[in-house]
Fold Carbamoyltransferase HypF.
Amino acid sequence: MPTGTSPQGRTGRRIRVRGQVQGVGYRPFVWQLAKSHGIRGTVLNDAEGVLIEATGNDLDAFVRALKDQAPALAVVSAVEVEPADLTDTEDFVILSSGGPGAETRVTPDAATCPDCAEEIRGPGRRRGYAFTNCTNCGPRFTILTGLPYDRAQTTMAGFKLCPACRGEYEDPGDRRFHAQPVACPACGPSLWFETDGERQGGDVISAAADRLLTGGIVAVKGLGGFHLACDATNATAVQLLRERKRRPAKPFALMAPLDIVRRHARVDDAAADLLRNAAAPVVLLEATGEKLPEAIAPGQATLGWMLPYTPLHHLLCDLVGRPMVMTSGNLSGEPQVIGNDEAREKLSGFADGFLMHDRDIARRLDDSIERVTPQGLMTLRRARGRVPGTLPLPHGLPRRQVIAFGGQMKSAICLVKNGEALLGHHLGELDEALTWEAFLQSEADYSALFDHRPEAIAVDLHPDFRATRHGHDRATAEGLRVLEVQHHHAHMAACLGETSWHGETAIGIVLDGLGLGPDGSVWGGEVLVGGYRDVHRGFSLAPAPLMGGDRAQAEPWRNALVRLDEAGLSDLADRLFADAPLEAARSAVRAGVNAPLSSSVGRLFDAVAACLGLCALGQSFEGEAAMRLEAMATRATGSVQPYPGDSSGHQLDPSAMFRGLAQDLEAKVSHDVIAMRFHHFVATHFAAAAMRLAAENDTRTIALSGGCFQNALLLDLTCRALDGYDVLTHHVTPANDGGLAFGQALVALAQLETD
């Protein structure tokens, strides 16, 4: 039945609004909308979203406006209307929430809105108050303890509203109507600055700012955990933080207001919009203008910037007046610290002071990391501000409940229910004990919050992944079916699914570090043919031994040595890596000891980086060599041709590329140009193979996935080489393993449907 029509005698409408519509000011929006359209009735939150019962003469326009004019933080996925026999009333009333349940979305945390930012700097009772918020901003998911989203089910439950805040909370015309974390200095959380276990007197934020401006390091309690902050213009302070944290090279995130960001980075309109987004992600921007210490991001062409996203951040930035390093407060390899006692225990060796408060954090969430590319938004880490947003499933997949446990690195889980997928937040490396605890908490947390009861579990094909073993154990305990999904098939499916593809056959270029192939070898440079249910491998990088097994990921010279030897360039390897144990490594490869075959393009990047002197003997963090190689390539000028190669068969042998690289080294060609020629080589030859397979399989759709496509230069070059095709790329899900669980869930649904 068309919206707004009803049979004779049925004058009312029962309207169901689904989506992200709780905790975003949707009910007061409906109340105000009803007043303006002369509508009478009721609105309430319940387990499925927002339920409206309405009578009046302007119902059609009222219903249209429910989606078209929704509040900024709302995401309306459906407005369902049915005629109803309703008793006409004289007013429109907001009712209290319905019973518990978990069909509706929960709202991500949102950055401080302009109204609240102005209020903390104004003359009113919230001047300088670090916990100011309203329905348009503030903590949501990080303080949530249960559903439905009401104050009693948040970590604000222990703070009783004062009369002034209660009045705002209960007034439908106020922007704080039912803003669950609403507070003021009289009734809300309090802030303090402590050093050596003692709270300091005076102006708390001024004390923290003074410590930062005199070269100190301060632990700052944010929304999803603690940060470690220092003055980003102070090279000594930045280096001190690196030494204390034992983090020699991994880039630090930065925080500053937009006008300061513009002094140090290139900010176009798209980047400015992303920085100002309510999610307040860390945004990778090209470093330009006023220089900052090299130690902030050694060897990188970009810096990661975020705007202040809580009142506390705004007030601190106002007093510091300079960009601040704002990096995760954690021990190396562990998840971010969230509790005050935990911070004192683990961060006291790093910090000279603690800026703390007494509002508990219900769940730890790292900052999201994103960038703007020629292809649009790229998500590198999906976390605070983006979760627990959901993704619609592609048309044709069944509406069944599945849970997928992702991979070993950049772990995240995915729950599918009612035609939507909840891709959880970034967790990290599951070999770390506390990250594993966070994984288990995440599973229990999301399952409870979303009332999830899976009928099947999807896991990676690798039997030794901790998440895989956990999936099998849970399936055995609960009598559920397990579906093992090959790593690169899951990557391809994630990209297809994000773009809602629902065709017959697609091509997937999947380039990453490693993933177990069905043949038992280590894959990582693949062109796949198929769809959600199944794929086959049509092309790959020619495999080479992973010299030393897992050590090949940490020591790029090993990958360079094996590729140079294969290309007949052993003499060059001997010269480049004279300090490495070359003969022992070669002997192990000849004997087949700890040297599994791998087609990994990630390891190929490492090999080329090592040849150019980048991290040759060791990387201090995953992807360091490849990131430095990308930065080097972006500095190349003039027309650059790809290295030679043959992509006409089923494999790409990089030997000719390495011989060309060796000639360039001999000719003293700029390393920047060599790096760019290599990027062109990868993009050109994988694109050529994909186009050939597309023609053979009568498709124009080519999806790009895998961690190597976090490299914005490689992504752009590949898309250019595929001009004229329907090229699908990741935007809101990570191309790296952070999106793997989403792809696993889609494959599992497709296989459940056809089995």
